[in-house]
Amino acid sequence: xxxxxxxxxxxxxxxxxxxxxxxxxxxxxxxxxxxxxxxxxxxxxxxxxxxxxxxxxxxxxxxxxxxxxxxxxxxxxxxxxxxxxxxxxxxxxxxxxxxxxxxxxxxxxxxxxxxxxxxxxxxxxxxxxxxxxxxxxxxxxxxxxxxxxxxxxxxxxxxxxxxxxxxxxxxxxxxxxxxxxxxxxxxxxxxxxxxxxxxxxxxxxxxxxxxxxxxxxxxxxxxxxxxxxxxxxxxxx
Length: 237
Hints:
The protein is an all-alpha fold. It has helices at 15-39, 45-71, 86-114, 123-129, 134-168, 170-183, 191-208, 212-235. It is globular. It starts with 14 loop residues before the first helix and ends with a helix.
């Protein structure tokens, strides 16, 4: 693959632009929750979660692509979304996704072994484990395997990581973007495993030079995790 077909090394936006975008996305997520909760109070929790996730991911995609195109006058190539790289990204993401999942699980097991208590599951994990109908399984899979990888990879690896790399270099950018990725999940006990996963995804983006690879790897990682949660939930009944 020729070098000009791969993602630009230096984006036209800076680190503070990336951080500001993350703050806005987090703020709007909370707003969506406040708006949707009274409207959908009779809905099952999983469908409220789906609605919030769809709105959040849709806003991230439309807002970020519009920002890149109109504010910075850049192309999809700058985000690593050049169509010609799709096949290569899917192959590499599938190949490395399970490896990243194993790294995350291994670091999670180490953390749990060091803790004097068993950390409880996250709300979304509880939702997955309690899924019984086909529609509930589909809804949680939609969030975990499609919406979360798309939105998070656009923000963290597509927008934030290249800005960090342009300012601090590749190694520090991988570490810093991974730390921010772990921290913004707002779960102290799972910060390290999530940061390890963030390192793997940023490394894969750097290696493949296409955002399709970490999106696919993130989807594979989440699919493997969801499968374990579904199995655990089935065994608990």
